[in-house]
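User: quick one
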Amino acid sequence: MTLKIYTAGPEVFLANAREVMAAKTALCRKYGFDAICPGDLDIPPAETMKAFGLAISRVDEDMMDSADAVIANLTPFRGLAADVGTAFELGYMCAQGKLVAAYTNVTEDHYQRTLAYYGGQISTDAGGYKRGPDGLSLEDFDMIDNLMLHGGVERRGGAVVVHKAADDALYTDLTGFEACLKALAEQIRHQSRDEGRRPEDLDASNDD
Amino acid sequence: MTLKIYTAGPEVFLANAREVMAAKTALCRKYGFDAICPGDLDIPPAETMKAFGLAISRVDEDMMDSADAVIANLTPFRGLAADVGTAFELGYMCAQGKLVAAYTNVTEDHYQRTLAYYGGQISTDAGGYKRGPDGLSLEDFDMIDNLMLHGGVERRGGAVVVHKAADDALYTDLTGFEACLKALAEQIRHQSRDEGRRPEDLDASNDD
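Assistant: Done. Structure below.
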């Protein structure tokens, strides 16, 4: 059966979202996977904006339930951290024991971005915690984002890919996405080897 | 058995995090619930910051796995959206079919905050989507945050509580948290009624 990958990320908010989703779908195919992209389905109109939003929430959760894996685009979105919708979806897939991978298109890590957010005005408290002028502590864990996100992926053996995209391709550069696909393909080959099957039997492009 | 509630929120970053967690724990007790708070356990030192972060990720996931419900503090954190760690945790608990509730301590909804982020410089494209100067579309769904978060809670029958906290109590005001506790208690009473049991048998404070 072909592995189905849910493509989580803030590119759904782009004017050319469908084009980016099509490119992600094509890349998934190249590695023998199927893509399940939020925004692929047309959501019927609803009586209120709230009802419409709830309908999208249901469709996206259904898509995740039917997927075997997620690749989460954790590139910072409207601020220093990942898109919260993507963070929700990554947590949702981690809880289901699905295969997980993540990428970011900026090279500054979570700590460096938080430091920049505070303009470098950091102090260290008596307990050794680094804090901003607002008293909030900074995570300094050599991670691309909050430890639940980065840790959730890395602890499950998933790839965490960092790639520097051009400013005008922050959400469209798919280098990191493709690296995640390669890592997933490799992970599946290893798993099948562990199960005593020949890796070539598992070439995803030939198995359905 | 006493319902165990995982208390997700950015208050873990406060200098007085333990004090806030103790107050949340006391409120949970008042409604007959047990609190499971991230940061409650001491994590042993690790060789690297990365390893320490991964250890916290594991402990927090274990705590969620052992909890029956989550109350997520979705108050905006270092920007216009909720804390991404909290978003991950909310998704994690939604996927497990746990009871969910959320609150925010600001009254501006997600759309209003995004509008402010763009300084009101919004245009409407040919497809009817509102977009910022960077071309990214704005969600306008009458929701407190990204539709996956708000929708994930509301679609499960969970409370979404909005309360205006004072500026200096943005992460410590527990009015919304207590409203979520009341809603959870009510939800449990209804569920038990649906199951044909007398609600008074289910008074959480008497059932273990």
